[in-house]
């Protein structure tokens, strides 16, 4: 199965598990312990993505996963994010997507 098929199949589940406030996976916004939001574009705490004025992107999930700086130049909701893709893989194992 290609990544593209995987994405179109699992993107809905994914959107349920990523908290847009802190960009982390696996809990809902009600369960989020973060007081301030983390920008999903530049990864800086205290503002959200739509208020972001930073030119440079720095994916907070990739930073947390200690990826190299040059591979973090995308936002946390980027479909090519390697953390995102591995989370989708996890979901794929848990979810029967009819395949
Ligand atoms: Zn959270
Ligand atoms: Zn920002
Ligand atoms: Zn990323």
UniProtKB/TrEMBL annotation:
<dbReference type="GO" id="GO:0008270">
    <property type="term" value="F:zinc ion binding"/>
</dbReference>
<dbReference type="Pfam" id="PF00098">
    <property type="entry name" value="zf-CCHC"/>
</dbReference>
<dbReference type="InterPro" id="IPR001878">
    <property type="entry name" value="Znf_CCHC"/>
</dbReference>
<feature type="domain" description="CCHC-type">
    <location>
        <begin position="39"/>
        <end position="54"/>
    </location>
</feature>
<keyword id="KW-0862">Zinc</keyword>
<protein>
    <submittedName>
        <fullName>Cellular nucleic acid-binding protein-like</fullName>
    </submittedName>
</protein>
<dbReference type="GO" id="GO:0003676">
    <property type="term" value="F:nucleic acid binding"/>
</dbReference>
<keyword id="KW-0863">Zinc-finger</keyword>
<keyword id="KW-0479">Metal-binding</keyword>
<dbReference type="InterPro" id="IPR036875">
    <property type="entry name" value="Znf_CCHC_sf"/>
</dbReference>
């Amino acid at each position: 199965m290609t990544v593209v098929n995987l994405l179109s199949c699992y993107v809905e589940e994914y959107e349920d598990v990523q908290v847009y406030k802190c960009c982390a996976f696996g809990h809902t916004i009600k369960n989020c312990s973060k007081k301030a939001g983390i920008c999903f574009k530049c990864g800086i705490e205290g503002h959200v993505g739509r208020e972001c004025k930073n030119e440079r992107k720095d994916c907070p999930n990739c930073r947390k996963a200690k990826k190299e700086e040059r591979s973090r130049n995308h936002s946390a909701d980027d479909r090519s994010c390697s953390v995102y893709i591995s989370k989708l893989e996890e979901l794929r194992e848990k979810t029967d997507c009819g395949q």
